[in-house]
Amino acid sequence: MPVDVQQLQNSALFKDLEPALLVQLAEHSRIKAYDTSEIVFHEGDALPACLYLLVTGSLRLTKASESGKETILRLLWADQMFAAPALFGNGQAPATATAMEPIEVLTIQREALLEGFRQAPELALHLLSIFNQRLQHLHDRVHGLVSERAIVRLIHYLDYFAARAGTEPVPQGQRLRSHLTYYQIARSIGITYEECVRLFKQLNGAVAYQRGGEITILDPDRLAAIAQHQANPSA
Architecture of domain 148-231 in CATH? Predict the structure, then answer.
């Protein structure tokens, strides 16, 4: 589906660019819609030389080990870039991208984007800043997997989704807008499904989990106290 200038301006990545440049980028851009659970691409697929931007919805990136175990690498929301190798790398999909709900994906041809860099160097700097943030997040995640206790990783994971996707008030507390299943959480923080179930039982009174991944933060202060104590047990 063709893209108009207004659709590009709706993204934080392009909103400050000159109209003439937006027109040029729009001519080399496309938007494609995907249904829930539809695959955008599989790990190892050859990708066209494009920038990929999630316009609406949420997307799951997963990677399979040699044993077949699937690990969730990232969950993305609207206005986030993904599939960096298609733009700067070897053109192979680093993971499998699956729509978690109906989504729209914007692609912009690399040559048009490079011309955009020449006309607006601040666009290139903005992209570099985003990739730097992603590398820092990856570093923090790897460090956490190595050094933090599983229950601390779980609490930080819940805090992340509460901040990123938001919560809604319910009589018991604050319910996460994102549904996070035991399986999804376990694969994201490097533990087994069984251990994830056990950890939620340890958080009973601070967090409530319901079938289908509906999670409610019952007592945020208690949750923070547990994380602090587990991170510094001798304190």
Answer: Orthogonal Bundle (1.10)
Confidence of residue 218 (pLDDT cuts 50, 70, 90): very high
Alpha-carbon gap, residue 71 to 61, rounded angstroms: 9
**Contact indicator for 17, 121 with CB cutoff of 8 Å:** no
Tokens linked to 144: 């956490």
The predicted-structure confidence for 108-156, as pLDDT tens digits, reads as follows: 998 888 887 787 777 777 677 766 665 565 545 544 444 578 888 888 8
The length of the chain, given as a count of residues = 235
Q: Which residue has the higher pLDDT, 60 or 231?
A: 60
- The SS3 of residue 52 is strand
Per the structure block, which two tokens stand in for 220? Answer: 């945020």
Pairing state between β 214-217 and 173-176: antiparallel
Q: Which residues of 26-54 are buried (b: 16+ CB within 10 A; e: fewer)?
A: bebbebeebeeeeebbeeeeebeebbbbb
pLDDT exceeds cutoff 50 at 96: yes
- Give the CATH fold of the 5-130 domain: Jelly Rolls (2.60.120)
3-state secondary structure of 100: coil
Domain ranges across the chain: 5-130, 148-231
Single-letter amino acid code for the residue at 187: R
Taking the CA atoms of residue 14, residue 18, residue 21 and residue 22 in that order, the dihedral angle to the nearest 10 degrees is 50
